[in-house]
Amino acid sequence: MSGDLPFRRHLRMTPLHSEVAAESRTNDWVERNGFTIAGHLDTPETEVFARYHRATLADISPRFRYRIAGREAMDCLNRLVTSDISTLEEGHFGPVAFCDENGQLVGEGELARIGATEYRLFTEEEVLSWLRRNSTGFQVHAEDVSAESAGIELAGPLAEAVLEEAGFDPVRLLQAGHAQTRDLMGMPVAVLRHVGDVFEFWPEEDDAVPLWRHLMQAGREAGLQAIGERTRNLVRIDRGCPRMGADYLGALSAVSGDHVRTPYEMPGETDVDFGKPVFNGRAALRRMAVQSAARRIVALAVDDARDLTFAIVCKGEHQVGVCTSIAFMPETGQYLAIATVEAAACASGGLTVETEIRRELAVWREKLPARIRPLPAKR
Amino acid sequence: MTGDRQAYDAIVIGGGHNGLVAAAYLGRAGKRVLVLEAGGIVGGGALAAELQHKYTLPAVSHLMDGLSDSVVKDLKLARHGFAYAASGLPTVALDPDGRHLVLTGKAKDDEAFLSARGQDGAKWTGFARKLENSAAWLSPLLNRPPLVAASSAARGKLMARAMFAEASGERAREAFLSLAAKSISDWVHEELEAPLLGGLVAFDATLGSTDAPYDAGTAFRLIYRHALKAKSGVAIPRGGMGALAETLVALIEGQRGEVWAEARASRILMDGATACGVVLDNGIEVSAPVVLSGAAPRETLLRLVGARYLEADLADRLSLGKAGGATAKINLALDGMPGFRGLTPEQVGGRIVIAPSLDEVEESALSARAGALPLDPVMEIVMPTCHDAELAPSGHHIMSILVHQVPYEVEGGWDARREEFVQRAIRTVCRYAPDATDYILAGEVLTPPDLETKYGIRGGDWHQGGLNPFDLLGLRPEPELAGYATPVSGLYLCGAGCHPGGGVTGLPGKFAAETVLEAESRGGRA
Ligand SMILES: Cc1cc2nc3c(=O)[nH]c(=O)nc-3n(C[C@H](O)[C@H](O)[C@H](O)COP(=O)(O)OP(=O)(O)OC[C@H]3O[C@@H](n4cnc5c(N)ncnc54)[C@H](O)[C@@H]3O)c2cc1C
Questions:
Q1: Minimal Cα distance from B307: which residue of A?
Q2: How many CB atoms are located within 10 Å of the residue A164 CB?
Q3: Based on the domain organization, do A94 and A76 belong to the same domain?
Q4: Which of B270, B308, B491 to substitute to test the interface with A, most A CBs within 10 Å?
Q5: What is the pLDDT of residue A1?
Q6: Chain-chain contact of B150 with A287 (C-beta, under 8 angstroms)
Q7: Which of B273, B306, B311 sits opposite A280 (nearest CB)?
Q8: Residue A137's closest chain B neighbor by CA?
């Protein structure tokens, strides 16, 4: 054969692939943004236990990173996102959401201010063309710098202990919401600390393996466990964070208007700052702000530990919603889900999910009560 | 005088006829208005230029067929001295073999004339009736401001309503819908045989655009032109094409307004997201709570305001729009009347079209697209001095030639090709009026880029933007700009880029001014 067809899909390896593969006892791989990454590396119970009681390490390289820099980077970004980022200080980061002209979400992510005129945007989905279109008329340049670095997430209650053992005290002492570049073992590494003992490391591509090994080594005592995407996904569902591409679609990629969401349909509060005179979606969001959203994305729990599947959310006889992300939580023996539910049905309880339950070869249906979970504080 | 801010109730950028009409409507309502025109003469595409202080040339446009009767009436233009030197002019389609066609627009006469020459008499009547019916359906939609929807969902409903609930009836609507998406060539081939009629219709359907007769949507353009026709038909204003602008300037000045020529706006002043004035390119700042712009929407919003003040989707769509002009002008001063073979003097005073067949129009369009000069240019000729002797010294004449399908960028560059272009055009004229060259005293040629630099008509585009069914009504120039107001509070658009489009109609200016006044009476900003 003479070369690859241009439309042939290539599954790419992250810079950490060989390290992660060495930890795998399951050979369970998933695809994320074109990369092969681990699904589970160990049993779900082991991974989840480590995540909630010890510490875990994960390869998060497939996230997109964009560098947005230039004299008018702040103005450009402030027109892009719904919140006011002019108050974001250097060395800090925060969640941002951005909409199209109809007030539908185009993307979400974290925006870190690296310098006076330089920012990094972290997103789950590709948004470069949108950033470029948003650059017109501003002295700013947006580029995809995803290939320049690899991502490592250290999380869990003992994460700080691991950092201490690793000799990374300055990182340990970082406050939540801060993003800084640190010299770790002579390597420049961008570090972000989230609420809830989650640290993100973004070393340069070649430095990723030494950093991973060093952390694995340092975490031995604390029971540091390498985990895969499925456990990270469970944590996300547990926190009630919808993910674009899974729980709703980005406005630029969705074909049906039913699959896009506005900030007002999201759980928690997306910051929409009408004090800013111009930003994408402002006029449409203004109109929406005075109405109540017809549907909402919520976090559900189904208290049942049997082997079951479900998707449809009902109230009485009627379908009122759909679960878009579902995971079993071994810690509490319940199913957790992210669902889109009619707003009117959310109010007074009485929700059920239509399940299919299996026991060996037998399968039957049951409606099980589902409750809307209050959300933990936002990142 | 930098920093010297003067306060007006409204500032109008662009002294094209639409800007002036808007200013006059605002002045009529008691507003103190300032009009800023970049050029040395006001009028934009509708102005007169002096040649050798003796000839008053219709510099750009040369005929008025769509000046809205309502504008004439509302502004009492007649009382202020505006009049036609001639109206209801016939259209004369020149035939290389001398079998010219003269159409008056009166169905019976035209049918009789054509039948007598064995040229599609009855067929033409059928064609003309269909055109009439479709135009009758569209006309009311063009003669009022468009319905504007706040959201894309509401837009769909509004469009459906506009399409299907019109008072003018089902038959007309069906006629319109069956034609709207067609090419003019399809329509012509279905109904007409005489090549000369096909050429004329194809010329009219594509004039002012880069479209070719085989392009879908060109049938619609013909209907559109027809739907905007004023009662007076094809007319020539007394005193030259600048007469309308001159009347309007006098009117505005009588209302305490001011019109500044050679005053180019370089930036619209912003206070947050609100327009509050204009900075001229000489640094002078003028302020007003309302700014209207008769410049093209894209120029206004991307250059004078700046993309940063718009949502990215809109900025993006505006930046994609391409100006599509393909018209050139040749204005000649003659020291006598050339002899058009086979035409009576009265016919020479009509609208003369040289477009021998649809295929020749198509060929010109395709060569223009490829950046080549047409071998046999298609054109429209007007001799305004047949009706208004004041425009030239006694016994002298002006020949205004509008050459259609001329590339904006020509192979080899305009500097090298200009002379050749003029030669070709005049050679074509001489085929019908062999002695024309004997009379030429002087002249000027305006290529599409010349029209842009000299008269601010970007890309030589008649309509300040596209003109197909999806560039009209509540979608023109973009859905969120269709109501003349813009997302920039205090800023309105009032030029041909807005509904109902180009041509000397005055309607965009009128509707824009009415929108401003309505917003004020609703308690918005003045
Ligand atoms: C070659 C040619 C022939 C035509 N012939 C005919 C015809 O015979 N009959 C007909 O009905 N129509 C004709 N048209 C179309 C017609 O001329 C236009 O549609 C019409 O003039 C549009 O009027 P307007 O006022 O909207 O815009 P314009 O006439 O284009 O006026 C806009 C004005 O704004 C000014 N301006 C732009 N930017 C600035 C700035 N930054 N600051 C200050 N001023 C600014 C420009 O100088 C210009 O004067 C012709 C067009 C062309 C190009």
A1: A137
A2: 16
A3: yes
A4: B308
A5: 46
A6: yes
A7: B311
A8: B307
CATH code at A115? Answer: 3.30.70.1400
Tell me the average pLDDT across A329-351: 94
Asked if CATH classification 3.20.20.150 holds for the domain at B6-46+66-83+239-322+463-521, the reply, yes or no, is no
Position A6 scores a pLDDT of 66
Model pLDDT for residues A85-142, shown as the tens digit of each residue:
999 999 999 999 999 999 999 999 999 999 999 999 999 889 999 999 999 889 999 9
In chain B, residues with a C-beta closer than 8 Å to the C-beta of A100 are 313
Q: Which residue from A75, A101, A102 is facing B308, i.e. has the nearest CB?
A: A75
What is the arithmetic mean of pLDDT over B58-86? 96
* Percent of chain B residues topping a pLDDT of 90: 78
Average pLDDT of every residue of chain A: 93
CATH number of the domain where residue A357 is located: 2.40.30.110
Is the pLDDT assigned to residue B62 strictly greater than 90?
A: yes
Q: Do A277 and B316 touch (CB under 8 A)?
A: no
Burial A196-234 (b: 16+ CB within 10 A, else e): ebbbbbbbeeebbbebbebbbebbeebbbbbbbbbbbbb
Q: Are B237 and B400 in contact (CB under 8 A)?
A: no
**Confidence (pTM):** 0.89
Centre of ligand 1 from the C-alpha of residue B105, in Å: 27
Same domain, A51 and A160: yes
A70 plus A52 within the same structural domain: no
Domain ranges in chain B? Answer: 6-46+66-83+239-322+463-521, 106-112+123-227, 327-406+411-446
Is the CB of residue B308 less than 8 Å away from at least one CB of chain A?
yes
Q: Do A78 and A103 have their domain in common?
A: yes
Selected residue of A256, A258, A278 to mutate for chain B interface (largest B Cβ count, 10 A): A278
3-state DSSP assignment of residue B465: coil
Alpha-carbon distance A49 to A58, whole Å? 15
Long-range contacts, stretch B168-175, CB < 8 angstroms, 24+ apart: B168/B136, B168/B137, B168/B140, B169/B137, B171/B133, B172/B133, B172/B134, B172/B136, B172/B137, B173/B137, B175/B130, B175/B133, B175/B134, B175/B137
Is the backbone of residue B506 left (phi > 0), alpha (psi -120 to 50) or beta? Answer: left
Q: Does B314 touch chain A (CB under 8 A)?
A: yes
CA–CA distance, A367 with A357 (Å, rounded to integer): 10
Closest atom of ligand 1 relative to the B263 alpha carbon: 43
Pocket probe for ligand 1: among B37, B329, B454, the residue whose CB has the most ligand atoms within 8 Å is B37
* Degrees to nearest 5, angle at CA A91 with A86 and A92: 60
A4 assigned to some structural domain:
no
Closest-CA distance, A215 to chain B, in angstroms, reads: 43
In the predicted structure, residue B159 carries a pLDDT above the cut 90: no
Chain B residues touching A138 at Cβ < 8 A:
307-308
Convert the pLDDT of each residue in B313-349 to its tens digit.
999 999 887 666 789 999 999 999 999 999 999 999 9
Q: Cβ B308–A137 below 8 Å, yes or no?
A: yes
- Tell if the CB–CB gap between B151 and A80 is shorter than 8 Å: no
Which domain does A113 fall in, by range?
64-147
Distance B391 CA to ligand 1 centre (A): 21
Secondary structure E strands in B87-164: 91-93, 101-103
Look up the ipTM and state it: 0.82
B316·A133 Cβ contact <8 A: yes
Tell whether A50 and A68 lie within a shared domain: no
| Residue A207 belongs to a domain | yes
**Cβ <8 Å between A283 and B313:** no
d(CA B306, ligand 1 centre) in Å: 22
Question: Can you give the pLDDT at residue A343?
Answer: 93
